[in-house]
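Dock NAP; give full complex structure.
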Amino acid sequence: MLTGMNIAVLGGDARQLEVIRKLTELDAKVYLTGFEQLAHAYTGAVKEKLEDLPVKELDAIILPVAGTNLDGKLDTIFSNMQVILTEAFLKETPEHCTIYSGISNDYLSNITRQANRKLVQLFERDDVAIYNSIPTVEGTIMMAIQHTDFTIHGSKVIVLGLGRVGMSVARAFHGLGAKVHVGARKSEHIARIEEMGLTSFHLSALESVVENVDICINTVPHKIITAGIISRMPSRTLIIDLASKPGGTDFRYAEKRGVKAILAPGLPGIVAPKTAGQIIANVLGQLLLQDLGNGKETP
Ligand code: NAP
């Protein structure tokens, strides 16, 4: 249990509701900043403005999945008030106070480093990324259905990258009856693709496999679907780019060529915010319990 721990949840979207539920279930004292418009009340959680938080007593701070923007501003969909995280605020927290975020950027990494506080990026963890690939795949299937007039079954689907998302996407489209080709650059990935019963190719040969492609799904966070590649695709091709912004597609050229290309970030939070929230909440709960077991005392 997290009895005696003081945890501040600063901003966020519907996914944080699962986190708040989990933390209160685990008996932490939870402070909610950026949630004034949230109608639901949680036993054990109080709404406070940033300046009214008991900052010197905080054991952990939970940020939105996206962390801060480059000016320190936090997303607060349950509030109209600006919440800005600063180095000065972090310096006021106890030394053991840990900051949990989905991802980080230069601003957040910099202020946590300057304040000498530990920053945990949950989305860097394999377990979170693999669980998160499940709603990502479901969102990808939804997009493929919405944006095509043919079935996935029997279509030629190219998946770029065999990481945590690529593997789940490839397996699901294969299960739906698509002819799945997966591009990777490591020999062990090529071997795994073959073992999965899919058709493999080296990413350097992408140009030669895009002819007749129906759906191309990118998970590689680098410019990989270049103008040269798009020019070889049939105009019916649908490109779904899952890689983090700005994606790996030359969107300008795709539009010019009349190939539909969609950047689709944040699918878990869109198609399954409850599940996406539970994934974060479960891992966060385990991490906080571990921290508590590592020397912090309960009253
Ligand atoms: P990952 O496990 O790191 O996989 C990335 C894949 O891209 C790996 O196969 C990697 O191959 C390959 N890759 C990376 N850089 C490359 C390069 N320069 N050239 C060729 N291949 C390269 O990441 P992930 O968890 O699958 O996530 C993939 C992307 O999807 C990320 O950008 C992530 O932020 C995003 N994402 C989006 C959503 C959404 O809703 N749209 C949801 C979750 C994740 P190597 O092993 O050879 O490097």
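Observed: The chain has a mean pLDDT of 94.
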